[in-house]
């Protein structure tokens, strides 16, 4: 029989083909992603998840959330628990490897959920490499019982990190715009839910239209645009306290907010006298600096991970393209040169890629490019899609897609473009903002 | 049974009439004893010309009240259209804006808000900027035709307020527009 670690290595090798080119593109900017990605095949790893709980269905519920997280990442294929031969595993005993090999599980995560005398939920779990017959991970998590989903997401994060070598991203939330009503009479409310679509709730009442929410680095604050009949303003909303405040008394329409990575600054657009320029506000002193002075449209600013560069959308060259500039507005250079219209540039939190929306041939695409504009790769394409936002690990992009005459909905795509998933939400949803990892 | 019921009704009527008559009698008695004061000084009442009778008044015209929102929409046109990704005032738009300017000069109490709109074939933030450009283009045209800038407010609704929800060229062409809303002073 083939050594099991070797089989895991084969899987990991397949994953490495996908992961390595991204690292490569940072060092060698001209390396095209495309060729290598088509060579690499993502073969999802079969994995068994078995969290038990005595006298409640909490174990099954946690298992299901962990399995759904891992499945949606595209790198795992959870095995149907009905196929398990070994039942009721003891979290403090070694599993019977042979029974897991029989059902072709390459990894097993088993655990036990208990509620202690003080009412706290505790989940102990271990991750096993079935083929090398060794434990990869052992962990104990505690929380109040109503936070059982967050425990499940943290287990999924730990498994994902151990087996892919990438940072987990499941214990995160999405702030987005919940849409309802007929087109032309849309109600647009700010809403929040877990990354997997669970626990949705509204943050605004729908008396005014809300758009383009963006998270601050600490995940507690969201900047968004509020559109009323006679005004467009930016508000900063604190998710924990529910308090919100208007950003400054700036004349004209204020929109397209984006926090700096350290959360101390806010870049945004101001339209005055028909001309839209980019401004930068220091959030402590509230002093505001104008960064662009072109008679062209300058909007959709986004900071690089180190905070030194702002990429933005401008039509100063005749058609909307992506430009970069220094924080003081100097050193403006165009970075998108492909055919078509480019907009909504968003830097990856890792700083290695810029996600964008491209329009060409009557279709919209979400793509990525290197910070200097090289290595453009389109990941997904449809009638209408835009608004990319990054998972905190820089590996997935969420965006919204609107088929002709239909409600918009949220989707995720992996940076190689090979894994695409719908984000479950029962109503219309647009303008997603992916939170940093929760603390 | 029915007879005695009728009888009761009749009796009640009689009682009611008697009570009414008694009330009238009492009132008349009080009115009789009103005294009159002797006239000390004679005053001449000022001359009051007789009121015109019958009175002549124009009736509201059938349909639209001049100077009203409806007048503006129906007889002038409250919306002008733009080409794709453009904020240039087209020839057909000039015609409508000339009429808007003339109407606004005739009704100086009216204040307006010009709303720039874009079709859905652009990203949200870019379209807000594009709508702002269109609103400004309309505003500048009206100003050049004599409308005082203080009467004009502008805003962009980006692609948020489509008037035609069809996902085709015809729908998008209608959604690329500048809309003039009367915010104050219309009849």
Automatic annotation (TrEMBL), chain B:
This is Peptidoglycan-associated lipoprotein. The keyword Metal-binding does not apply. NCBIfam families: Pal_lipo (TIGR02802). Keywords: Cell cycle, Cell division, Cell outer membrane, Lipoprotein, Membrane, Palmitate, Signal. InterPro entries: Bact_OuterMem_StrucFunc, OMP_bac, OmpA-like, OMPA-like_CS, OmpA-like_sf, Pal, Pal_lipo_C. The gene is pal. Residues 1-22 form the signal peptide. Part of the Tol-Pal system, which plays a role in outer membrane invagination during cell division and is important for maintaining outer membrane integrity.
């Amino acid at each position: 029989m083939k050594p099991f670690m070797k089989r895991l290595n084969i899987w990991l090798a397949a994953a490495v083909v996908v992961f390595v080119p991204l690292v490569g593109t940072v060092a060698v900017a001209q390396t095209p992603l495309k060729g290598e990605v088509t060579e690499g095949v993502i073969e999802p790893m079969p994995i068994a998840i078995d969290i038990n709980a005595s006298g409640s269905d909490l174990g099954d519920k946690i298992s299901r959330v962990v399995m759904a997280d891992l499945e949606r990442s595209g790198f795992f294929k959870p095995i149907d628990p009905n196929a398990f031969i070994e039942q009721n595993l003891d979290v403090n005993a070694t599993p019977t490897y042979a029974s897991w090999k029989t059902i072709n599980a390459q990894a097993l995560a088993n655990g036990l959920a208990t509620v202690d005398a003080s009412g706290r939920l505790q989940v102990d779990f271990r991750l096993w490499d079935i083929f090398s017959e060794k434990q990869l991970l052992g962990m104990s998590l505690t929380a109040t019982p109503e936070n059982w989903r967050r425990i499940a997401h943290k287990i999924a994060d730990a498994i994902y990190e151990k087996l892919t070598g990438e940072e987990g991203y499941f214990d995160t939330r999405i702030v987005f715009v919940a849409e309802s009503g007929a087109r032309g009479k849309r109600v647009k409310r700010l809403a929040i839910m877990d990354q997997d679509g669970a626990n949705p709730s509204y943050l605004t009442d729908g008396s005014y239209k809300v758009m383009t929410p963006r998270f601050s680095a600490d995940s507690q604050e969201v900047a968004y645009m509020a559109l009323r009949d006679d005004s467009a303003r930016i508000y900063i909303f604190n998710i924990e306290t529910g308090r919100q405040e208007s950003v400054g008394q700036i004349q004209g329409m204020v929109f397209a907010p984006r926090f700096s990575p350290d959360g101390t600054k806010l870049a945004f657009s101001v339209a005055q006298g028909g001309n839209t320029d980019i401004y930068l506000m220091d959030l402590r002193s509230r002093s505001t600096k104008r960064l662009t002075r072109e008679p062209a449209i300058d909007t959709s600013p986004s900071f690089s991970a180190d905070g030194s560069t702002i990429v933005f959308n401008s039509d100063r060259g005749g058609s909307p393209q992506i430009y970069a500039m220094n924080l003081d507005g100097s050193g403006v250079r165009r970075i998108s040169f492909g055919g078509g219209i480019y907009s909504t540039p968003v830097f990856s939190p890792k700083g290695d890629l810029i996600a964008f929306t491209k329009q060409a041939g009557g279709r919209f695409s979400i793509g990525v490019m290197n910070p200097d504009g090289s290595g453009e790769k389109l990941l997904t394409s449809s009638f209408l899609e835009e608004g990319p936002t990054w998972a905190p690990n820089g590996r997935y992009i969420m965006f919204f897609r609107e088929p002709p005459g239909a409600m918009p909905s949220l989707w995720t795509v992996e940076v190689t473009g090979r894994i695409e998933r719908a984000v479950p939400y029962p109503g219309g949803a647009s303008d997603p903002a992916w939170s940093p990892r929760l603390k | 049974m029915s007879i005695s019921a009728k009888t009761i009704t009749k009796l009640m009527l009689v009682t009611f009439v008697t009570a009414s008559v008694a009330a009238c009698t009492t009132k008349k008695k009080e009115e009789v004893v009103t005294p009159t004061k002797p006239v000390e000084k004679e005053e001449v009442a000022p001359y009051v010309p007789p009121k015109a009778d019958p009175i002549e008044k124009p009736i509201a015209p059938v349909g639209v009240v001049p100077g009203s929102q409806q007048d503006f929409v129906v007889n002038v046109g409250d919306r002008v259209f733009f080409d794709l990704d453009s904020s240039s005032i087209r020839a057909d738009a000039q015609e409508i804006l000339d009429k808007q300017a003339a109407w606004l000069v005739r009704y100086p109490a009216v204040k307006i808000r010009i709303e720039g709109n874009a079709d859905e074939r652009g990203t949200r933030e870019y379209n807000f900027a594009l709508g702002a450009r269109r609103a400004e283009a309309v505003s500048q045209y009206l100003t050049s035709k004599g409308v005082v800038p203080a009467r004009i407010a502008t805003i962009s609704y980006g692609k948020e307020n489509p008037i035609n929800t069809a996902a085709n060229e015809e729908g998008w062409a209608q959604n690329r527009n500048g809309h003039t809303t009367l915010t104050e002073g219309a009849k």
